[in-house]
Amino acid sequence: MLVAAAVCPCPPMLVPEIASGAAPELDILRAACDRAVGALLAAAPDMLWVVGPDAEHGSFDEGGVGSFRPYGVDLSVSLGRGGRDGGEPLPSSLALGAWLLERAGWEGPARGLAVPDYLEPELCAANGVRLAESAARVALLVLGEGSARRSVKAPGYLDERAEEFDAVAARGLATADAGRELASMDDELAFELMASGRAPWQVLAAAAAGDHLAAELLYEDAPYGVGYFVAAWI
Questions:
Q1: What is the pLDDT of residues 63-98, one digit of tens each?
Q2: Beta bridge partners of 32
Q3: Which residues have a Cβ under 8 Å from the Cβ of 176 and sit 6 or more positions away?
Q4: Per residue in 108-144, pLDDT tens?
Q5: What are phi and psi of 76, to 5 degrees?
Q6: What is the 3 state secondary structure string of the chain?
Q7: CATH of the domain at 64
Q8: pLDDT tens across 42-52, in order?
Q9: How do beta strands 215-221 and 228-233 pair?
Q10: Integer Cα distance of 52 and 113 in angstroms
Q11: What CA–CA distance (Å, rounded) separates 178 from 181?
Q12: How far is it, in rounded angstroms, from Cα 72 to Cα 58?
């Protein structure tokens, strides 16, 4: 059963060593992520799943290793308990999730699930149900972002549909209203708007169905023209 969830974006610049001189620009976002993850861990889960976007669909066992060397920083993290030698390589989003967990001091079990942006809502829902049933007390750290087309300087340039798309996401994350908002998000529109969070959020929506968790939206903004959200569901 799902007992808690934290939702965070996953830009590599969240890691201060990667952001370097620009690190203070994301201090407020970083603090919100810390708060959401702290609330997640306070729920004392038996199993913690990190769910994030990637090009391929797949699960990652405990001990998987994430490296930030592609971003010019000699830093590695481990998913859950386990060493950093010989672990399965983690995709970028799950590496960021593992970094957030290490930053919060999590020492319990953790596994990962990567979901691509083309994954149909029905398959996202099936994944969510499976995760929720994986232990008596399950927690999810869900990584992903809204539209990447909120301004002319955004990665995908400006799309006038982006603001309303992100508003729908914000409402869903703020109320834990998984059935009407997150679960019903248009996957084709999300793809056109380069919203990496759609599939992970729909995994969360299915995992949380019927559990009546209380939700709090801790952060909502679009720095760099990308929709970033942080939420805690407890």
A1: 999 999 999 999 999 998 766 666 899 999 999 999
A2: none
A3: 208, 212, 213, 214, 215, 233
A4: 999 999 999 999 999 999 999 999 999 999 999 999 9
A5: -130, 155
A6: CEEEEEEECCCHHHCHHHHHHHHHHHHHHHHHHHHHHHHHHHCCCCEEEEEEECCCCEEECCCCEEECHHHCCCCEEECCCCCCCCCCECCHHHHHHHHHHHHHCCCCCEEEEEECCCCCHHHHHHHHHHHHCCCCCEEEEEECCCCCCCCCCCCCCCCCCHHHHHHHHHHHHHHCCHHHHHCCCCHHHHHHCCCCCHHHHHHHHHHHCCCCCCEEEEEEECHHHCCEEEEEEC
A7: 3.40.830.10
A8: 999 999 999 99
A9: antiparallel
A10: 7
A11: 6
A12: 26
Query: Which tokens is 12 given?
Result: 């590599």
* Structural domain harbouring 87: 2-233
How is residue 118 written in tokens?
Answer: 């083309």
Round to whole Å and give the CA distance between 59 and 70: 22
In the block, tokens 């020492």 appear at 107
- Type of residue numbered 206: A
Looking at residue 122, its pLDDT comes to 96
Distance CA 72, CA 119 (A): 31
User: How many domains does one find in the chain?
Assistant: 1
